Amino acid sequence: MTKNFKKLMQHDKSDDCPICHAEDLVTTTLIPAVAAWEIANDFPQFSLALHGAAGLLSAMIEEGYKRDEIEVALKKLLDEFEVSIANNTAMAGPPQGSA
Ligand SMILES: [Zn+2]
């Protein structure tokens, strides 16, 4: 993994970690905004999410990042999100009203 990529993937363990801030921004702002745009424009759910993500990543390719490194990084991040989702689901317990 190149030096630039390490900078994008590694948390610096500070209270002011830029990677944590980027993740927070996506969760609190980008995801709700994209969902609202999809609804407002009558796009299929997640159409903008998927194509937006691919478009953003293609901008990295245009800037000279290697596609295979982007794919490795994306797989790692998705793996981490899946673990996080599974943990959150486990902590939340069974769905409300299912008892
Ligand atoms: Zn961090």
Features of this protein?
99 residues; mainly alpha; 4 helices; binds zinc ion
Provide structural commentary:
There is one protein chain. The protein is mostly helical and 99 residues long. The protein is 73% helix and 0% strand. It has a domain at 25-90. It has helices spanning 3-9, 18-40, 47-62, 67-92. The longest helix has 26 residues, at 67-92. It is globular, with a radius of gyration of 16 Å. The structure holds zinc ion (ZN). Zinc ion binds at residues 11, 17, 19-20.
Spell out the helices and strands N to C. Answer: HHHH
Give the distance, in angstroms, between the N- and C-terminal Cα atoms.
Answer: 48 Å
Give the structural class.
mainly alpha
The overall average pLDDT, rounded, is 92
Radius of gyration: 16 Å
Structure ligands: zinc ion
Give the percentage of residues in beta strands. Answer: under 5%
Biggest pleated-sheet summary: none
**Low-confidence runs (pLDDT<50, min 5 residues)?**
none
Helix count, DSSP H or I runs of 4 or more residues? 4
Q: How is the quaternary structure best described? A: single chain
- What overall geometry do the principal axes of the alpha carbons give? globular
Strand tally: 0
The level of helicity is over 70%
